[in-house]
Amino acid sequence: MTVIPLKKLKPGDTIGILGGGQLGRMLAMAAARLGLRCQVFSPDPDSPAFDVVQHATCAEYADVEALELFANDCDVITYEFENVPSATAMILDARRPVLPAQAILTTTQDRLIEKDFITKLGIGTAAYADVSSVSELRTAVETIGLPAVIKTRRFGYDGKGQAIIRAGDDLSQVWEDLATKSAILEAFVPFEREISVVAARGADGQVECFDVTQNEHRDHILKFSYAPADVSDELAATARGIAEKIAGALDYVGVLAVELFVVASPEGTILLVNEIAPRVHNSGHWTLDGASVSQFEQHIRAIAGWPLAKPVRHGQVTMTNLIGDDILTYENWMTVPGATVHLYGKGTPKPGRKMGHVTEVTRPGGK
Ligand code: AMP
């Protein structure tokens, strides 16, 4: 195991956060509770994370001078989204520790590289093929079969940059609509449920996983998370083991999420990894109120070189995302027993926009 030489922060030190969305905001709030300061870098003047920090840099990710000044102000730098441009990460990396490390972005920004990496670790994924032309798409469909899912290799999120292909679909049209030169075709997985593991890894190699979470999507966007997931203890342990193996192989420092499909097979129930998110994750939001430590605090502890907490869940927890106009119901949630409301301070509710979430600890002391 490689031990990354990491500067151990002390209270009062400054963490730089690339990205100003709700994840950056909640990271900064967790850091503040531990006596650490944060400086947020985002090109969007309306960034929700700007509201909770004293120092913000509003500049483009390609603005070298702004990046250098930002780095000078920070002791360590992290990010709240995985699509940090590599040039940006390199500029920062030359000046301050960037955690999780830049090489991890290279693996996780590209679905093909990520799937190859997972496969090499001996961990299952959906069958997949590299596709860079319509003729390669036809060959891949013959090998993998239909239905299948085509995804752009880069920059896909919340169902964007992907489409299900069914028997009879016009493959030329599918390829044209995807408007990319590099994609992967994945077998459609008839999953029983979707789960995720949110895990923290320290520079010393210690890993602490939160309890496995079950996730439900609406229109490709996470709507509900339930902790613990409705899976056997054995399957939950296997899922945690997968996350731990991935984190170790990446020499990861910080919090990451591994999304998995639970699939019935002739050999019994199996797990296939869908995706790795090298950051705090929406399916870990329940930890803010449903556990003794949140995913945000664990991330801050890891990148500060501080001891990780051993998370204890407070009961059975449900997290409901407030998406788009759902936000208009926030007052109704405020009087629900056991509910905690989180509003991200975003202006206009647009369809599909994550505006806030609610955590409910429904059965304190439950399994
Ligand atoms: P992704 O952007 O890869 O996280 O996919 C978003 C969602 O699409 C997943 O959470 C699944 O619900 C669904 N999905 C993605 N890939 C597949 C697949 N190969 N088979 C079935 N459903 C999928």
Describe what you observe in this structure:
With 367 residues, the chain is an alpha+beta fold. Helix content is 28%, strand content 30%. The chain contains eleven helices and 17 strands. It has helices at residues 22-33, 64-73, 86-93, 102-108, 111-120, 134-144, 171-178, 233-249, 287-290, 295-304, 330-333; strands at 14-18, 37-42, 55-58, 76-79, 128-131, 148-152, 162-165, 183-187, 193-201, 207-209, 213-218, 221-227, 254-265, 268-277, 315-323, 339-343, 354-364. Strand 13 (254-265) and strand 14 form a beta hairpin. Helix 1 (22-33) crosses helix 10. The radius of gyration is 20 Å and the shape is globular. It starts with 13 loop residues before the first strand and ends with a strand. The model has no long low-confidence stretch (mean pLDDT 95). It binds adenosine monophosphate.
